[in-house]
Amino acid sequence: MNNFMKGDAMQDKLTKVPGQEYQDWFNAQVRLGLEDIEAGRVVAHEQVCKDMQTLLETIKKEHAPKAP
């Protein structure tokens, strides 16, 4: 048996429900997001819309057909 499968790691592998690892990861990501909100690490919806509009305009200019 590989070292990484010994002890608690092996027990976790045996007791996890299929999909549980994803659910644990998802729950952790939600907690991180909520912590960001509580800490004020957010961007207002209006700012995201403004930034996206600027990005789209830049992309359009870069890919616009060149005048002959």
What does it look like?
The structure is a single chain. This protein is mostly helical. 69% of the residues lie in helices and 0% in strands. It has helices at 7-15, 20-38, 45-63. The radius of gyration is 23 Å and the shape is elongated.
Short account of what is shown:
The protein is mainly alpha-helical and 68 residues long. The chain has three helices and no strands.
Keywords, separated by commas or semicolons:
mainly alpha, 68 residues, 3 helices
Give the overall shape.
Answer: elongated
Low-confidence stretches: none
Helices and strands, in order, run as HHH
Strand content range: under 5%
Class from secondary-structure proportions = mainly alpha
Show the helix and strand layout.
Layout: H1 7-15, H2 20-38, H3 45-63
